[in-house]
Amino acid sequence: MRWAGACGAVLVMGCGAGIGPEVDPIAPVQGAVGSELRIVLHARSPSGSSVKFDYRVPEDLDDLKRRMLKPTLTSYAAGFAVFSWIPLASDVGEHFLRFVAASQGEETVVEVGVTVAPGTGALPIFREPIGDGTTLELQQSACADISVEVQDSDHPQVALSFAPADFPNAQLMGVGDSRATFHFCPSSEQTANRLIYPFTFSADNGERKPVLKNYTIVVRPSSQSSCQSQAPTLTTKAHTNITTTNNLHFTAQIDDDIGVTSARMWWTKNPPINPAAPDLSTFSLIDMARKKGTPLSGDYEAILASPVAALPSGSAMKIYYLLEAADADPPLGCDHRSLMPPSGTFSFTVTKP
Amino acid sequence: MKIAALLLLGGCATGAPPDLDPGLSHLALSAVHPALLLPKTPMTLEGTSFVDEQEGLSWLRLAGTWAPSGGAFRAVDVQLPGRFIDATHLEISEGLWEAFGAEAGSFDGSATLSVDSAVDQTRHTARPLSLSLQLARTLLPVLTEVTQGPIFVNSPVSATGEGFLLGGAEGETRAVLDGCFLPAGQKGPCKTTGMMVGTVVSGLEVPLHPSSPWDRNHAQFPFAPEIAGIHPGSFTGTVSLKNRVAERAPTLSTSLPLVVTLQHPTITKVSPLLGSLGQYIDITGGGFTGGSPGSVTLFRLVGNFTVEGGGSQPVDLYLLPRYVDGGHLRYVIDETDQLGKRVNLRTIAGSFHGTAQPVVLASGALEIGTQTTVDLGLGHVKQVVFLHFDASYAKSLRRFGLQAADEAVRSRVLAVAQRDYTGTNVEFRLDPPNDFALFEQVDILGPDPNGLGLLGYDNTPGKDIGNTRLFDRIGGVNATTQLDGYPGYGGVFAENFLGFSMHPPSDVAGLPLADSTFDEIFDPLRIDRSGQAATLTEVDGLAARDSGDGCPASDRRTQVACAVFVFGNLIGTTLTHETGHSLGLANPNGDGFHNPGNQPNRLMDSGENRPFAERAQLQGAGPARFCSEEVTYLKQILPANGPNDPHPRPPCN
Questions:
Q1: Which is nearest to B41 in space by CA: B106, B120, B135, B126?
Q2: E strand or H helix that includes residue B340
Q3: Contact yes or no for B493/B443 (Cβ under 8 A)
Q4: B468 in contact with A, Cβ within 8 Å
Q5: Distances (CA, A) of A283 to A266, A323, A324
Q6: Using CB atoms, which residue from B11, B335, B451 is nearest to A88?
């Protein structure tokens, strides 16, 4: 089954007193240096005779037929031919190739516009920063300086910008060919209201849609020593040795100036390798529930299911444990975590009757 | 290679050029999705050898019987246009509903895919596929099961049932939540100490997404911070489903109880445990947030960092990885963040022992996750090099009679590259890296686009002493290099190795170093020299050679093996030479790009001082190696802990 496709405008000229072959129109062609460019030609002779093809060298490509890597034009049956060409670096630009279809002394010339691009239209790539963001540690520096670098193989220069544009205390400095430094010094008013600052860097080579990179700066205020708030305090009595199969209860009073956000009990039946600094990754964890009071001052309890209930009568197990209370005081970085005991663990023995 | 022109045919000529491949020889239709369509549901076709509109117009013919709901059967035969998505997917988004009279019902028959090719002016038709379809105006959702128990913020909550919508143009199924959330450690009632989430009528709606493509029975929604915040606690309530379809009233399911416990954010795995500059580190766990304004998860490391061969110092670092989903963060080791400011990632290696902890921020709230003990390693800076074999290289293989040996040639090239950089932290790969954000790429091409007849060319700008750029590309065009007045196109130009022949093809320039041994190796395979190209049978099971002993050979199998060996060596040593340039060689402490003078088996000698036998590793010559000072420099900028190359090095001067 045959069907019709689309085509662009071409210039067709006949030569000689008779009628030359009828050449199918050819749309303008685009190619790139180093990549094969192919043009399919098709013509019909009025008398049905065979058609031969050739091409004429334009002035701006006058060496085209003399090159080592010259184009080829291969004819096939039924009036088809294929023109194959790998453009070189020196061929970048717009050209007009003329193809000649000849039959029985009559010629038809068709002109085709060919545009050779230097590359394959690669987009700019952000080479710095490669990550998605960073923290600004205010105890170390008041400003974040982020190196921005873009690579574009087709363009030695790329325009850099960021959004939101005109953001207070943010600017691009030292802007050069595809490089700059993003400089952000948030004011105390800014950091009092928010800590997370999402920015978008843009690289525009002027040829295609700009490439964007999102980058977030999270401000972390000065160290905890300068925080105004206090750590939680825990008051508890160490659990004593006990003989029972009942569940074990651990209580504490916890106070905090802004509010406790979590209270937990860490426990294990294995002696810590370093008693003074136990490795909590080897402990089990139980959340403590507030039985009375408020996050500012309350009574908390953790319940541990009897560890000896399933053991033979008279079995004993030593339990090592500590209690933890934490808060998340604003601004970010002022969180506290208190342990009881402050170092090491409590321990006691539970025995099955 | 796409055909760049379309033709307008007035007549019906036959016999299109055999050289033209419309790319439709494997055209096949394997599946049509989904089986049940609503008025706006796009239909997706799966198969092989699909082409875009520039190369051909695709059509789907549906022929069979149509049974409208409550109506009589009738025969149908309709043709619908397809839209190209990719080589294995087409989409039909218009005309289907109208083709069946804009009414609900069922179709039973066959689906036939055809493509009207612009390349050969022919309609290509795939084998028909039996097909049954249901068309419905709307769907009633049914919820039979939903996840319960402990979860994290942004964990997927799975729903099972029927009548789920697929999203997009078709419409959306939403979960409607009502209930009570209590912070950890608190007990009810909810009204005094927790939040009331809402009622059925004005409940909180969260979009569901199919668990797998086209699945109308399983879907999930994230337990997003918008539902109950980011703090640990328990949610007790109900969930129902609501189907929203354009221009129709929503349909609702009955509700089911939903009881979930939100846990502290936690990290369960960090991988890999050893990383270097530019490498991705995957952090898995639960309770992570991100991807929207005001929402990030920080990765906090507290512990001690011990410098390799040096002392230890305490660290408390907050790093900002990319949010992938509630259970996955991706961090890239970067010089611009706190880690990069604390440690010189290009000169320092070491180990970290301590704890890792997620710190979650969302909508002004902060939740600090559990600590997990970790041991992480910071490796020496590594240069990953991706070898990209261009389509033009594949064509050049034919000229050497080696098109059937492509894989064997690439393996030899990789072996040569790894050999030449033994003892340094350079890693060559045949696949594009997905674990490094910074890597080099070297293109292996056919002809030289510069038109200069080069064998290889490093087109990266200047001399990168110290290898500050880990992302160079030896290939394509480099506009900066062109601006400096140098040729702009880089790579290894495999076709130009034919210049070593005493009888090169007319379109390849002969080289001053032409060698008859080249012809002894390749003439048996070169078609233009009356040889025979290697066949798949001859290549099958070919043992990889590491030596040129016995080459050239007289028996066919060894001839093929020698040709693969030599061609792989020619490409391999050229690419290792050009890669050396991109790393700052030769003469990293001085001027010039090549070793002075001419010494045997010296890799960074200039091209005219590197004879064919040395490149090909024949007749006792080669392999060429980096000279001793070059190795010292490479190990300084890219140190590795592996074994050194025990072979003696040529002198540098």
A1: B135
A2: helix B338-342
A3: no
A4: no
A5: 6, 12, 13
A6: B451
Helix and strand totals (H; E) in chain B: 12, 36
Q: Do A22 and B480 touch (CB under 8 A)?
A: no
- Closest partner residue to B320 among A26, A135, A328, by Cβ? A135
**Least CB-CB distance to A216: which of B13, B320, B437?**
B320
Give the Cα separation of A55 and B169 in Å (integer): 51
Mutate to test the interface with A, among B477, B493, B507, B582 (most CBs of A within 10 A): B477
In 10 A of CB B190, how many CB atoms? 18
Q: Does residue B392 belong to the interface with chain A, where contact is any CB pair within 8 Å?
A: yes
**B window 446-465, beta carbon within 8 A of A:** 447, 449-451, 453
B13 interfacial to chain A (CB closer than 8 Å): yes
Model confidence, pTM: 0.80
Q: Do A133 and B337 touch (CB under 8 A)?
A: yes
Q: Which two tokens stand for residue B121?
A: 């002016």
Mean pLDDT by 10 residues, chain B (653 residues): 33 44 86 95 95 88 93 92 94 90 92 89 93 94 94 96 95 92 73 49 80 95 91 89 92 94 93 97 97 92 89 89 97 94 92 92 88 93 97 90 95 97 96 97 93 92 92 90 84 96 92 97 95 93 92 96 98 98 91 88 94 96 93 94 80 84
From the list A79, A280, A290, which residue is nearest B13 (CB)? Answer: A79
Report d(CA B575, CA B445) in Å as an integer: 11
Residues in A closer than 8 angstroms to B6, CB to CB, are 5-7, 27
Greatest distance between any 2 Cα atoms in chain A: 123
Query: Which of these, B379, B302, B301, lies nearest to B333 by C-alpha position?
Result: B379
Pull the structure tokens for residue B284.
């898995």
| Residue A224 near residue A336, CB atoms below 8 Å | yes
The reply to whether residue B337 touches residue A131, judged by beta carbons under 8 angstroms, is yes
For A286, other C-beta atoms within 10 Å of its C-beta total 16
Q: Contact at 8 Å (CB) between B280 and B436?
A: yes
Dig out the tokens for B548 from the structure: 């040129």
User: In sequence order, what E strands does A57-152 have?
Assistant: 72-75, 80-85, 93-103, 106-117, 125-128, 133-137, 144-151
